[in-house]
Structures are given as structure tokens and as C-alpha cells.
Amino acid sequence: MRAADEAALRRIARRRGRKEVRRKERVDVRYSAEEKARIVGKARELEIASAHFVGAVVMAYLDGELASGLPGQRTSLDDRLDRLDALRTEVARIGNNVNQIARRLNTGGVPHPGDTALLDRAQQTLGTVRATIAKVAGVMNETVSAKAAE
């Protein structure tokens, strides 16, 4: 766990104060022995009760105060990374086509009638891809900077 996450967790757990009226509602949750040991250990480290710790973390998540999401939960960063991966796949396909044409031409093969047009189009597409990658990199840098500032 990062130091910033650790500090946020301590702050959130300690902020959940006592109520004047006793909390009577319960939610029963089952943990494995290992999960329970980790929860109890972290609660002891924070010098609070385990139930208080779990309640504080859950409420902080529901209130949007925890920076990280649940395991397996998709974020906008995940979506952006998936789009980058799709773009990488498309660029790889263009590269494969260009390599096939270059191989044929370099081994003395006769170019197909559309090879010149395909190479021109590939060059234009790669120029567009370069510009897009620069824009995407800028957005990703902003996203990472914003995430780090949280």
C-alpha cells in the first residue's frame, strides 16, 4: 500500500466518530481466516476496533472518499488503456502489411498493382496514428498527474 493511501486510510478510519444514538443495524459479512487476520491486524495498527475499521472504509468508499476502487472494478483509466491497446493492434496490422510488401519487393518480387497506393495510404495512416498517440499520451499524462495529486 502506498504511503498516501495509508495516510488516507488512517484519516478516514479516525474520522468516523461515535453517534449519540447507538448504531443498531448490522450487516453480517463472512471472511476467510486470512482476510479476517488482515482486517484485525490493520485495525490494531490504527488502534481502532475491527468493526469500526470496516465500517469506516465501507462508508468512505460509498461517500467517494477512497481513491482506489474495488478489485475488478473498471475505471476510466482501464477504458483508456483498452483503447490504447486496440490502437496498438491496428498499428501492428498496418506494420504487417507494410512488412509483407517490403519483403516481396526486397526479394525481387513483382509488386502488385495496389502496393504503391497501399504504401502511400499506410504512410498517411501512420502519420495520423503518430498525431493521435501524441494526443493520447498528453491525456494519459494529465490523468496520471491528476491521480497522483489525489
Key phrases:
single chain; 150 residues; mainly alpha; 0% strand; elongated
Oligomer: single chain
Strand count, sense and barrel status of the largest sheet are: none
> Helicity range of the residues?
over 70%
| Order of SSEs | HHHHH
Low-confidence stretches: none
**Number of extended strands:** 0
Shape: elongated
Structural category = mainly alpha
**C-alpha termini separation:** 15 Å
Mean pLDDT across all amino acids: 76
Separate helix tally: 5
Computed over alpha carbons, the radius of gyration is 27 Å
Strand content: under 5%
Question: Can you describe this structure?
Answer:
The chain has 150 residues and is mostly helical. 71% of the residues lie in helices and 0% in strands. It is built from five helices and no strands.
What is shown here, in short?
The protein has helices at residues 3-15, 33-46, 50-62, 76-106, 115-149. With 150 residues, it is mostly helical. Helix 1 (3-15) crosses helix 3 and helix 4 (76-106) packs antiparallel against helix 5 (115-149).
List the helices and strands and how they pair.
Elements: H1 3-15, H2 33-46, H3 50-62, H4 76-106, H5 115-149
Helix pairs in contact: 1-3, 2-3, 4-5
